[in-house]
Amino acid sequence: MNSFQPIPNVVDHGDFLRDVIEILFSNVVFAGHSNKVVLWKQPESLKDLFDFSLDQIGVTQEKLLVLIKNTIKFSVKTGHPYFINQLFSGLDPYGLAGQWLTDALNASVYTYEVAPVFTLMETKVIQEMCKMIGPEWGDGMFCPGGSFGNGTAINLARFNLFPDIKLNGLTNLPKLVLFASEECHYSIHKFASFLGIGENNVLSVNTDDVGQMDVSDLEQKILEQLGLGNMPYLVVATLGTTVRGAFDPLNDIADVCKSYKLWLHVDAAWGGGLIFSQKYRSKLNGIERAQSVVINPHKLLAVPQQCSLLFVKDKDILHRCHSKGAEYLFQKDKYYDSTYDHGDKYLQCGRKCDVFKFWLMWKAKGSMGFARHVEALMEVAEYFETQIEKRPDFCLVSKRQYMNVCFWYLPRYLQGKRNILNNTSQLQKVAPQIKAVMVKHGSVMLGYQPLKNLPNFFRFVSQNSALTKEDVDFILDHIADIGRAVFP
Ligand SMILES: *Cc1c(COP(=O)(O)O)cnc(C)c1O
Hints:
InterPro entries: PyrdxlP-dep_de-COase, PyrdxlP-dep_Trfase, PyrdxlP-dep_Trfase_major. The protein has 488 residues and is an alpha/beta fold. Helices cover 40% and strands 13% of the residues.
């Protein structure tokens, strides 16, 4: 037997790939309302039902096709209208086509040499979005998620103050502290820890009863830290908080940052998609006054996972902070203008091409298409909130400011009660129990969480503009039906 086994040739596997595409078409792409969101199995039983084994000898293509079907069968259908579990959903045809194309080309975007089209495309998309943020905005980078973008910004802000750390590290630095609201995304703490700042040096600023940062508390905490001899250097404001969809008062925060000379980073991972809508752009007012901004097109704009960008006002800072000039990749004596090689401003080396699916969607729909998408979603969220307010078996957690509608289902014994928060321990159990029933049915996946002193509540949020008012009615009736059965 020949011991040399060549890599199978894709060309000889045309039939196999066509079969796979056919399976994807019938089981994923065109699987509609009538299918389940998930065929739920506990981990131990999934281990028995699915063949995870790996052996010396490979299996036949027929077996592989069965495994592929089973993978789809037991996976969550995130494109299903009743997948409302996360801040992404929906399956955009142009986005999917874009993702398929970049996977087929197996592109990696570090140099013009290996990614000519995608390099120029990234520049174009970054430039266009910089213009939308503000006239002075200089550059941006694609990120493997908003968490990574936030972390990069935390580091850029520190580098901006102490450029010497790039070569000499963190010794001799004063004790740096940063500020973010108590409802900020947890990536701020994770990356503060990762970067050697420490989670305890992320000061939590109080939020009001709808979830917005309290700016007087911010200023007081800055003064407190200065009094302790620590060095405030960064404020993270959130536009569209993850749970409640709150928008921090950006202009007031920018004023504070200006008077204390602090870097302002805006985490608009969730809210930033509004930048395409004339109607709602004002919710982002003040964004141009920041030094850095994160926007996730893979959330509100429904670009397939992942597509996330960090923008910076200072157009050279990404290069100054990140570049290393590796000579095997970024040779200075290339046969083309090597300033087109953007890879060195990134922290990654090889990098997935996330621009194409976004660009293709933008090209297909136009900016107006994204605006219409966003505005349609807001209408559904408005309708959802109105229905909650009308029904005695539901109760809003706080007034809606965005797509997020946070609400409790009220068992009969709590309906009509003046202060339902006196029943926190009972309410805490309601959402998890109803969710468990829904997931076991495979009917609806809807997220829940506690927040501050508020017991577990559901969060409705949609990025899927195919979701209709009838769907909203179905979801609420479904929760109420389960609620009546579980809490008679
Ligand atoms: C989702 C989210 C993030 C993190 O984005 P990922 O792409 O999931 O890493 C950061 N900030 C806010 C406000 C978010 O909602």
